[in-house]
From TrEMBL, chain A:
This is Zinc/manganese transport system ATP-binding protein. SMART domains: AAA. Belongs to the ABC transporter superfamily. Coiled coil: none annotated. SUPFAM superfamilies: P-loop containing nucleoside triphosphate hydrolases. It comes from Pseudaminobacter salicylatoxidans. CDD domains: ABC_Metallic_Cations. Transmembrane segments: none annotated.
From TrEMBL, chain B:
It is found in: Cell membrane; Membrane. The keyword Magnesium does not apply. This is Zinc/manganese transport system permease protein. The chain crosses the membrane at residues 18-38, 47-65, 71-89, 101-119, 139-162, 169-191, 197-219, 226-249, 255-276. Its main location: membrane. It comes from Pseudaminobacter salicylatoxidans. NCBIfam families: AztB. GO terms for cellular component: ATP-binding cassette (ABC) transporter complex. It holds the Pfam family ABC-3. Keywords: Membrane, Transmembrane, Transmembrane helix, Transport. The keyword Transport applies. One of its GO terms (biological process) is transmembrane transport. Belongs to the ABC-3 integral membrane protein family. It is a multi-pass membrane protein.
Length: 279, 288
């Protein structure tokens, strides 16, 4: 697989011995645009954190095959909005991968920051303190920072929350532009219509991967139904997931040891490029 | 006027030393205070100041009232508490305020215990409140070294420290510097508190760190000017405090801190982001 950007091998991520992403296998093609969908608690954000590396896998691995530079826009930013910084300071943080700790910002860098602000429609906002921005404006500023980061792999976690329709349109155009520049983009989205319209590929999660592949195939009603039936809660007395079960039919590090089994779901995708397994 | 403002510093060596020491102290401690405040760790400085006590006490126990052993002891105690509290908060679910409180209270109790094992309450007062008017060459050299180290470290790590305050998760996603910078910063806090405790005492040294920073917040919306302004306010407070102490025969440490406190109170009311301005502006606004 020469064109893989990310490869997951039996990846399990979670908190306190409970898996949030369970035995994920497969790879994300370089230059692909993938929507990650699923109910609350289905492991979308957790997967993002695992890819960035702020959360270490409980089992398996997630490898950044080409050592791609990553830009990550988290769902719950730890951004301190009361910090006395201007919009331009915030967006300039995106220069870090290039300039690091001590490199001076050149005129070219500054131009790039202005261009990024223009691209998200925040021209003239350079000097504004960040605590005067609205939620949607701040989100656009963060998009501008991603633009400046010039990353090969872009991870956006629910970037359209609290954003108005017009802005969503603008941001989707930006995402498509990245796709056009053959960057690899993964976006957590809730709006399935949006996904159908703009995203070629989709990963449907319900702790276990339900389906992964072309959007039209993945979002078939039976897959959505299975995703919807997933039990969000953790069960303290769930059986331990044994390693040798990982690839076959076994479940759960502390998985909800009941009504899931009846589906006999195949949650391994050795290579999803061979087509989605819609069970 | 000359007699009142300048003569005391020209005529008395101890006043010159006090002035030099406290100004150098402001140079390093005030910018550190700005970042402490912006990270909502203002009270952490206070906790750290208490945490230094047992280290200083150990130095005092073995060597008597001498600056170098007490400083080194304070430094070690401060670093242990800062690293311990920082580590607990980074590696467990407990937040830094709780772990810091736990560590500094243990440390403080140990310190009081050790001071009382030997020495009188006069000595304890000395450690707690300092003597800026009795700075010797050793102490001045130490303070100078600390402010130079602080300024150099701040310049080198400036971008990372700002990023760690502004968006820590972003810094973690692009660089491995997040955690080291946090500890380096805590190290600077300890270093400056230790530098201050000979002059101002363990309890008041945090005052020169926090009050100018808190006052500067009312005048600026950007970090760089805020740090410069904090240093200037620190300078002013030191000069005013020393003069006050000289003319009115008041203890110098509290006089310096009270001067800074006065600037703070004035700033809260009259600062560009103070009470009056924020209230006045409400009555007229632009169209867009």
């Amino acid at each position: 697989m020469t064109d893989a950007c990310l490869t997951f091998r039996d990846l399990t991520l979670g908190y306190n011995s409970h898996p949030a992403v369970h035995h994920l296998n497969g790879s994300v093609k370089a230059g692909s645009l993938t929507a990650v969908v699923g109910a609350n608690g289905s492991g979308k954000s957790t997967l993002m954190k695992g890819i960035v590396g702020v959360l270490k896998p409980m089992a398996g691995s997630c490898s950044n095959v080409r050592n791609a530079r990553i830009a990550y826009l988290p769902q719950q930013s730890e951004l301190d909005r009361t910090f006395p910084a201007r919009v331009v300071d915030l967006v300039s943080l995106g220069l870090w991968p290039r300039r690091g700790l001590l490199g001076r910002y050149s005129q070219q860098d500054r131009d790039e920051v202005s261009r990024a602000l223009m691209a998200v429609g925040l021209k003239g906002f350079e000097k504004r303190p960040i605590d005067t921005l609205s939620g949607g404006q701040l989100q656009r500023a963060l998009f501008a920072r991603v633009l400046v980061q010039d990353a090969e792999l872009i991870l956006l976690d629910e970037p359209f929350n609290a954003v108005d329709a017009k802005t969503i349109g603008d941001l989707v155009q930006l995402i498509k532009r990245w796709h056009g520049e053959s960057r690899t983009v993964m976006v957590v989205v809730h709006d399935l219509d949006l996904v159908r319209e703009h995203f070629p590929e989709t990963l449907l999660l319900a702790r276990n991967p339900i389906a992964w592949g072309a959007t039209k195939e993945t979002l078939r009603p039976e897959n959505l139904l299975r995703a919807r039936r997933f039990d969000e809660a953790w069960h303290e007395n769930a059986p331990w997931c044994e390693p040798d079960h990982g690839h076959t039919d076994g479940h759960a590090h502390a998985h909800d040891g009941h009504h899931h089994h009846e589906h006999g779901e195949t949650h391994d995708f050795p290579d999803h490029e061979s087509g989605p397994r819609a069970a | 006027m000359y007699d009142f403002l300048i003569a005391p510093f020209l005529e008395f060596g101890f006043m010159q030393r006090a002035l030099g020491g406290s100004l150098m102290l402001s140079l390093g401690a005030c910018p550190v205070g700005v970042f402490l405040m912006l990270r909502r760790m203002s009270l952490t400085g206070d906790a750290m100041a208490h945490a230094i006590l047992p280290g200083a006490a150990v130095g005092f126990l073995f060597f008597g009232l001498q600056i170098v052993p007490m400083t080194i002891g304070g430094l070690i105690a401060g670093v242990i508490v800062a690293m311990g509290a920082g580590a607990v908060s980074r590696f467990t679910v407990q937040k830094e305020d709780a772990s810091m409180a736990a560590f500094y209270l243990i440390s403080l109790a140990l310190g009081v215990l050790m001071v009382s094992l030997r020495g009188s309450s006069v000595d304890l007062m000395h450690v707690l409140f300092g003597t800026v008017l009795a700075l010797n060459n050793e102490a001045l050299g130490l303070i100078a070294a600390i402010s130079v180290i602080t300024l150099i470290t701040l310049v080198i790590f400036w971008r990372a420290i700002v990023a760690e305050c502004l968006d820590p998760l972003f810094l973690r996603s692009v660089s491995g510097l997040g955690m080291p910078v946090h500890f380096i910063f805590l190290g600077l806090v300890v270093l400056n508190l230790v530098g201050g405790f000979q002059a101002l005492g363990t309890l008041l040294s945090v005052g020169l760190m926090m009050l100018p920073a808190a006052a500067a917040r009312f005048w600026s919306t950007r970090v760089e000017p805020m740090c410069v302004l904090a240093v200037l306010i620190g300078f002013g407070s030191c000069i005013a405090g020393l003069l006050l102490s000289y003319h009115a025969a008041l203890p110098s440490g509290p006089a310096i801190i009270l001067s800074a406190g006065f600037v703070y109170l004035v700033s809260t009311v009259f600062g560009t982001r103070g009470v009056i301005n924020m209230r006045m502006r409400r009555h007229h606004h632009r169209t867009a």
